[in-house]
Design goal:
Elements lengths: L5 H4 L12 H12 L6 E5 L6 H13 L13 H8 L5 E5 L6 H10 L10 E6 L6 H12 L5 E7 L7 H4 L3 E4 L5 H15 L5 H10 L4 H14 L7 H8 L4 H12 L3 H13 L4 H20 L11 H13 L2 H18 L5 H13 L7 H16 L8 E2 L9 E2 L5 H5 L1 H4 L15 H8 L1 H6 L3 H7 L3 E4 L5 E5 L2 H7 L2 H15 L5 E5 L6 H4 L3 H6 L7
Parallel strand pairs: 1-4, 1-5, 2-3, 3-4, 9-10
Antiparallel strand pairs: 6-7, 8-9
Helix pairs in contact: 2-3, 3-4, 5-6, 8-9, 9-10, 9-11, 10-11, 12-15, 13-17, 14-15, 14-16, 16-17, 16-18
Length: 538
């Protein structure tokens, strides 16, 4: 006999076997016992939470010849026929592939005939939100006033897509995500039945990875057992099969990020990818790791909330004391945004690398948290003597102000760049702006529009300026943009686009704005000058 997947082999056959949906099971059993059965039900919830399973058990229960406390006996001919899928009284319809008006009209014609055996004809319409508007309209009348022997059970993962006119004609039941404890208990029970040795820690990780879905948990467990067939299933082996990352790896990664060691961070990510770790899973798990750190910082009584071992908890507490709360919140924000973007991304690794660089380089961002972090880093450098504040002379008389070391001229004492906070002086303009550069600047927007997607997006934000030697200078906001644009391929594409517009091969230079100052304060705003038709005279 062919192998049967665990989630099919152990699908509940009676209400007592259903785990995690007691609020629904109790209500349905009471309805059956009191003979208060409704004509239409709507089962809503995420995948793998038991919607179709409970619908089939309910169909068995209402047709059972000798129900036991509202639950089907499982032994009568009706129960056996429904369990085997051969009963004419239970009709399962996949709305994803039968979503037209004609399919619903067939149902309307069929409900006119009473069941050949048993009390009720039960229509289970799965993924009902996939029906077309016309199909929903065709279903309305039948759903509102069906024959007394017909029950409709509509199942969906996206209740918000169902018309209100349908919702108002059904009893709605919302299926909850199944808790980690409930899934772990069920998996342990089934593994004992299957005589497979599994570490409790491994079962708990699978339950957590299932994200509230019992079916997903059984599928993941099935996959892990198949890989290590006949061997004990340990926590490390589960991590290896699922492409997951252990907590110790996150700890190492976080310490490298806090040390601002970009090369080591990228190298560690490279190792994880070579080992076969799933990039999307890494982003999700690392976000949860950072969330756990933040919870530990927020309260002293979070040990019960965090689902981790005592060894990992001790490590987390150590790192929670090392990390800054504002910094952690910035990390979580960046990775939360990344988790949304990476789902449909082709170059997932590149996006993760950019996010990790952002974590190490807060100056790449302009939001409040990043600015606050940059100020904190500067204060720390001053405390450690890496940056010396101006030595002030407090002996100056009233009204004379405070001067550095008795010198009344700040720039004279420390030099112009020290007084300006490290600001780079604007390059001196040549006596005349070259004509070809002026031509490029005047046509800059149309030149950019001719470029390919990624290059165009970066250069839309570029600011044209001029070197002291009269060469065109393009300023980009950060190193990531500069490294992307400054490749040989992209430089050639830009050169060709400028040549097509001007008829000349234009020499240019590309730089990132590394001055920590606004563009206007550090560079000549060439575009503004030329567009305003300002003439530079000899």
């Amino acid at each position: 006999m062919s192998y049967t997947a665990l989630y099919r082999k152990f699908r509940p056959q009676e209400f007592e076997d259903v785990k995690g949906q007691e609020h629904i099971v109790t209500t349905l059993k009471n309805q059956i016992k009191a003979d208060r059965i409704c004509h239409a039900y709507l089962f809503c919830g995420t995948r793998g939470t038991g919607k179709t399973t409970i619908a089939k058990i309910f169909a068995k229960a209402v047709n059972c010849q000798s129900p036991e406390a509202g639950s089907p006996c499982g032994n009568c001919p009706s129960c056996k026929a429904i369990a085997a899928g051969s009963s004419m009284n239970v009709i399962e319809i996949d709305a994803a592939s039968n979503n037209g008006v004609d399919n619903i009209r067939e149902i309307r014609e069929e409900v006119a005939y009473s069941p050949a055996e048993g009390k009720y004809k039960v229509y289970i319409i799965d993924e009902v939100h996939m029906l077309s508007i016309g199909a929903f309209n065709a279903l309305l009348k039948t759903l509102e006033e069906p024959p007394s022997y017909v029950i409709f059970i509509l199942a969906t993962t996206e209740a918000h897509k169902i018309p209100v006119t349908i919702l108002s004609r059904c009893q709605r039941y919302d299926f909850r995500r199944i808790s980690i404890e409930t899934i772990s208990g069920r998996l342990a029970e089934l593994m004992e039945h299957e005589q497979v040795t599994v570490e409790p820690k491994a079962i708990r990780y699978i339950a957590k990875a299932a994200d509230g879905s019992m079916r997903d948990a059984l599928s993941l467990l099935d996959q892990c057992i198949a890989f290590y067939l006949g061997q004990e299933l340990t926590y490390d082996r589960v991590l290896n099969v699922l492409g997951a990352v252990d907590t110790e790896v996150f700890s190492e990664m976080l310490r490298l990020i806090m040390a601002k060691d970009i090369s080591a961070v990228i190298a560690r990510l490279e190792e994880l990818i070579i080992e076969g770790r799933e990039p999307g899973q890494f982003v999700t798990d690392f976000t949860w790791y950072l969330r756990n750190l933040l919870l530990l910082q927020s309260s002293d009584n979070m040990e019960d909330v965090l689902d981790i071992s005592s060894d990992n908890l001790a490590l987390l507490k150590e790192e929670a004391a090392m990390a800054d709360t504002v910094e952690l919140m910035r990390y979580i924000r960046i990775f939360s945004e990344l988790s949304n973007q990476i789902r449909y991304a082709v170059q997932k690794r590149v996006m993760i690398e950019i996010a990790l660089i952002k974590l190490c380089r807060p100056e790449m961002e302009k939001d409040y948290d990043s600015l606050a972090l940059r100020v904190a880093q500067l204060e720390k450098k001053i405390e450690n003597g890496l940056l010396a504040p101006y030595p002030m002379d407090i002996s100056a008389g009233p009204g004379q102000g405070i001067s550095p070391a008795g010198n009344g001229n700040l720039a004279g004492a420390y030099g112009e760049s020290a007084f300006s906070g490290g600001q780079t002086a604007k390059p001196a303009l040549p006596k005349a702006i070259p004509e070809d550069v002026q031509q490029v600047v005047r046509n800059w927007r149309s030149i950019v529009e001719e470029l390919s997607g990624g290059l165009k997006n970066y250069l839309k934000l570029a600011r044209p300026s001029l070197t002291e030697g009269g060469q065109l200078l393009l300023i980009l906001e950060d190193e990531v943009a500069e490294s992307f644009v400054n490749t040989e391929e992209h430089r050639q594409e830009l050169t060709d686009a400028m040549a097509r517009k001007t008829g000349k091969e234009i020499s240019f230079k590309i730089e990132a704005n590394s001055t920590n100052q606004p563009f206007e304060e550090s560079y000549v705003d060439l575009e503004k000058m030329i567009n305003m038709e300002i003439t530079i005279e000899d």
